[in-house]
Every structure is written in structure tokens, then in C-alpha cells.
Specification:
CATH class: Alpha Beta
Largest sheet: 7 strands, parallel
Shape: globular
GO molecular function: metallodipeptidase activity
Helix content: 40-55%
Mean pLDDT: 93
Protein name: Peptidase M19
CATH architecture: Alpha-Beta Barrel
InterPro entries: Metal_Hydrolase, Pept_M19
Radius of gyration: 18 Å
Pfam family, one: Peptidase_M19
Number of helices: 13
Number of domains: 1
Organism: Solimonas marina
Length: about 325
Amino acid sequence: MSDYPVSLDDVIVCDMTFPQSPCGPLYTPDFAGAMRERLALGVTYTSITIASDEPTIDGAMRWLGEARAHIDEHPELYVMVERVADIERAKAEGKVAVNFHFQGTNALLGDLGLVEVYYRLGVKHMLMAYNSRNLVADGCHEDSDVGLSRYGRALVAEMNRVGMIVDVSHTGYRSSLDAIELSTKPVIFSHSNAKALWNHQRNITDDQARACAATGGVIGVNGVGLFLSEARFDNSPETIARHIDHFANLVGPQHVGFGLDSVHDIPYFLSNFAKAGKDRKYPVGGYLTSNKPAFAGPDVIAKVTSVLAGMGWRDADLKGVMGGNWLRVMKQVWG
């Protein structure tokens, strides 16, 4: 077990973004092995990306069915999460607590009625957009920044009604603020870093962070070198800790967590990334396989919390960042 600065006996470690799946376009070999590795490193809860903004309804349904079948085949490993009590049970039983998210809203194809369907299948948070414009919002790489569409506004209301967390990572500046203003429930940035520390389009401004915190939400700091510093390959615990500490000083440590966006099998992932044409779709953001992006794995959580402890963080605040802050939001929205 990794050497956390506080005891794992009384804390549940949460990672709000694992961008790989046991099926579909984000398939990774030996997915169960990746989950066992996370469990061994002290991570109890992981949110699994089923798709970004590519899928048809048929594709999304098929991938959700295959992912649920994988989970059902391994009852010794997984607990499917509907409520926070399921995460607590997974912790007590030494299992991995999981559910799903979409990085984008195109799987709805404009049908608000599908929000509840996907929610019942395990999709518990959904990003408004993935880098580019869709029917709902502008992505963070769009220059227009026109905000949420009328449909997007209705979508936020429906997600609030159903209990699906509104997630504005990868989303354009104005669109994210529109969603935050409209939501009656906490809004999250599941995996976004501080623009004040590295001016990348994928990162968020201080006023976005403040607006998120005002809803009771949480900002999940990721471990992708491209979004951490100008060096692009620096995903050290110290650099990740700087982003966490920045947000904590800005809005309070109760509004920060981990959304690592880490990749288990990097060569396989990059091969599939290129096959999907994303090198051509998002070159402006540096999403090139030739850049050989650096991803911090789940072992970094213990290292980052140790760095924060060395900076004078209190145990109670460390426990919040490790997972308690995410659990608070989940409890408010999922129950």
C-alpha cells in the first residue's frame, strides 16, 4: 500500500476521471488489472469514461451494456455505484467502486429523455462539451465562446432533476459559467487545472473556479503534463500540488480533489487516439501523439498528499482532497 500521510482506514480516495474503459473507443487491455492496481494503491472510487463526443445513441448504449457486463463478471472486484453508501460498502469490502461519465453530450443527440436513461445505466456525471462546439455548448478550444444554447439550458435543468452531476471540464468559458449560474445543484470541473499557473485553453480561470465553488462544487486537478506547465512533460507531485494549493488558497481546500485523467497503457492509448483521428481534430491544444503526453498514474495521489502535508496542510483538508470533497458533492446530488 502506498505511504499516504494520513491513514487510509478513515478516508475514501476518489479519482473523478479515468479516461479508459473495458469496451468501446476507450478500450484498454486488462481493464480489470488496471482497476486492481488502483485498488492496491488505495483508490476506492473511480469514474470511468465511456465515451467523449463521438458516439451515436446505439454506440453509447452498446458500450454501457458491455461495461456493465464486465462489472457483473467480476463481483469480487467491483461495486456499481448508485449512492454514496455503495462507495462506503466498497471500501469496507476491499473492492473498487465505479460508475460512468460521458465527456460530452452528443450521446443524447438532442433528446433530453435520454438523460434519465443514461443515469439509470450508471452515467452519473456528464461534461457539457469536449473541446469543440456541440448542440449544448462551446468547447474550450472554440474562439466564439457564445455560451449555452437554449437546449443546453434545458439540459442543465434536466440533469438537476434526474440527479446527474453537471460537469464543465473541457467546456468553453462562457458556457461553463452559464451552466454554473443555471444549476441548482453543485457543479464540478472533474479534471481541470489552473490557468493562472499555465495558460492553456484546457485550464480554467480563477473566476471559473470561484463560480464553481459558490455552487458547493469541486475542481478535480489532473495529472496530464500538457495541462500542468509549459514544460508539457512535468507531471511531478510537486507540480500537481501547486495547482491544488492554488485552488485551495483561492476558494478553500473543501473545493478541490483529484481527477487524474491518467492512462493505464499509454502506448495502446496513443495508438487508438491516433486511429480515431484526434491528432487531426484537436491539434491546436497539443493533442498530438508525437508529443508523447505524460500522464501521472494513481500512485501520484499519495505523493501529492505528502507534498501538501509538507506545505503545512492539515489532516482534515488532506482527507477532503483525497476524496471527502467529492463524496460531499455526490451525497448532495446522488444521495
